[in-house]
Automatic annotation (TrEMBL):
Belongs to the parvalbumin family. Pfam families: EF-hand_6, EF-hand_7. Coiled coil: none annotated. This is EF-hand domain-containing protein.
Length: 443
């Protein structure tokens, strides 16, 4: 019996081979184009892309990187290679366009082939959005980038291939600008990441491949979805996670969670009085679930509950390992189960905390809900799962922690990507209350 992980690995391998096979279609289309094909339109798009680049680079310079890119050494290497090669490619493409120097053109192509393209392939599996659409779209774009770079390396005096490579290289820039634009005007709130990625692709691909580009692109994505269903054979939850928009790996289906809470509240006859707080409500429901009044809930029942709430599979596996003894006391139920469904609350940033240690302390105090002076490792695991790290990468990142909890000093010195990004995504009111995740993708 082939395991689900192996099936998924086979799917990504087949999809990668399919993306390379698309090169044949790219060659068949582009060989019919004259050297000046859409020259004016391409130049205009290149100038617009360059203008947008200024804002995107400024954004990345002034904002903390997403933790999924910098928590593990291999991820940090990949993202640094990706950024440095991307900047070098951008500069050398412009130098080539202005000077016509074939050596610079070959250098631009070589950096794309050896740096930007491989590092992009490596990051594809951790993208956000509806993976059924985004993974295929990324692979299509990366393969087209590789195809253009190879042609520019062979024909370094070709302005046609120089413009093509530059345009595909800037698909991400258009994604970022469109994401900000749609957010500003309030469009596509639930599917913004996927819509912006596809819109960027549908704008730039026809400039490179002509009018048939979008048909080829849509056919490639449709084929990738069928391959996933055929090879992976997902269950209902896995299929939903693959097909639905995922700005983050949401730990809980909030609609199911809230319906369950309301139903249990009615059964427990929880008072609606103002003096009844969240922890007291949780205790009432815990007592309702604790049928034998032992002070514990059976671990298997909690695991079943997590499945009913459509909790992320990675967290269910972790909970199963964490609760091997089988029973859960109220404190653990409230801290690790009940609060899975809580939402971030809205707030406005007043006095900005500037010192790193103050930022770390602010995030630490928020996570240390019981004011014990320690953060349980499971709290960090929940954040990492939400932020897109795979199960094995969560284990690898936290492998050096022996006592399964973090003091403030450990938190400050050992997990900077966590508190840096968490603080960046919080707005702090004068009252010090945390209110909103600002940009959940920040990809």
């Amino acid at each position: 019996m082939i395991s689900q992980n192996i099936r998924l690995y086979i799917y990504y391998t087949v999809l990668f081979i399919l993306s390379l096979g698309a090169v044949y279609a790219f060659d068949h289309i582009t060989r019919k184009h004259p050297a000046d094909y859409l020259y004016t339109e391409k130049c205009l798009l290149c100038f617009i892309s360059s203008f947008f680049n200024v804002f995107v680079l400024r954004y990345h310079y002034t904002h903390a990187p997403h933790p999924k890119f910098c928590m593990l050494l291999q991820r940090r290497i990949a993202i640094y290679v990706h950024i440095s090669s991307g900047v070098f490619e951008f500069i050398t493409c412009w130098l080539t366009f202005c000077t016509g120097n074939t050596y610079i053109a070959r250098a631009a192509a070589l950096v794309a082939i050896l740096g930007h393209v491989p590092s992009a392939y490596y990051q594809t599996s951790i993208v956000f959005g509806a993976k059924a659409l985004i993974v295929a779209a990324y692979l299509f774009a990366i393969s087209l980038h590789l195809f253009c770079a190879l042609n520019l390396y062979v024909q370094p005096d070709s302005v046609y291939w120089l413009l093509n490579m530059f345009l595909v290289h800037n698909v991400y820039v258009w994604c970022r600008i469109l994401y900000a634009f749609f957010g500003f005007i309030g469009l596509f709130k639930d599917t913004r990441y996927t819509i912006t990625s596809w819109t960027a692709a549908l704008i730039l691909f026809p400039a490179v491949l002509g009018v048939s580009a979008n048909v080829l692109f849509l056919g490639y994505v449709a084929g990738s979805v069928f391959l996933y269903l055929f090879i992976v054979q997902p269950d209902e939850q896995q299929r939903d996670l693959f097909l639905c928009e995922r700005p983050r790996d949401l730990l809980v289906n909030t609609e199911i969670y809230e319906h369950w809470i309301k139903d249990k509240s009615r059964m427990a006859k929880i008072s609606k009085k103002a003096e009844t707080n969240d922890q007291e409500n949780a205790k009432e429901i815990f007592d309702l679930l604790d049928a034998d009044k032992s002070g514990y809930i059976d671990g298997e029942e909690v695991s079943q509950l997590l499945e009913e709430w459509k909790v992320a599979d990675a967290f269910i596996k972790r909970f199963s390992r964490w609760s091997k003894k089988g029973n859960l006391a109220f404190d653990d139920f409230y801290k690790h189960i009940w609060r899975l469904g809580e939402k971030s609350k809205d707030h406005f940033e007043g006095n900005q905390i500037r010192e790193n240690k103050e930022k770390a302390r602010f995030v630490f105090d928020y996570l240390d809900q019981d004011h014990s002076g320690y953060i349980d490792v499971i709290e960090l695991q929940k954040l990492l799962i939400q932020w897109g790290l795979s199960d094995n990468e969560v284990d690898a990142y936290l492998a050096t922690d022996d006592d399964k909890r973090f003091s403030f000093d450990e938190f400050y010195h050992n997990v900077k990507p966590i508190w840096d990004f968490a603080y960046e995504n919080m707005r702090v009111a004068n009252s010090g209350i945390i209110t909103e995740i600002l940009h959940p993708h920040s990809n």
